[in-house]
Amino acid sequence: MDTSTVQLSPIETTIMKGEIVEAIRTIFDPEIPVNIYELGLIYDIDVSQQADIEVRMTLTSPGCPVAGTLPPDVKAKIETIAGVGDVTVDVVWDPPWNMDMMTEEAKLELGLM
Fold first, then answer.
1. What's the pTM value of the predicted model, to 2 decimals?
2. Which domains does the chain have, with CATH numbers?
3. What is the pLDDT of residue 4?
């Protein structure tokens, strides 16, 4: 998509962010039967007025077996959303992920509550 002329309104930005969250919720950690959004692996989603997307995410550990595939999966899933411009997924380790970052829904799913 040519994003040079795109100028999303604040409402359009919010709608697109919601679509991105819903797309990410379809991606599951292969070792834990909970989607990566509910696990708390997504730290931030930034949608620019030009519809460029920047995601900051982490993994459950630096030695995570899906470290090489999960971030590209997130990028590919976001790129399927209509109107999205450039997508960047940055893996960060600060703050380190811990189980307190999971949503209540994820904790219930895993029997931790």
1. 0.90
2. 10-96 (3.30.300.130)
3. 57
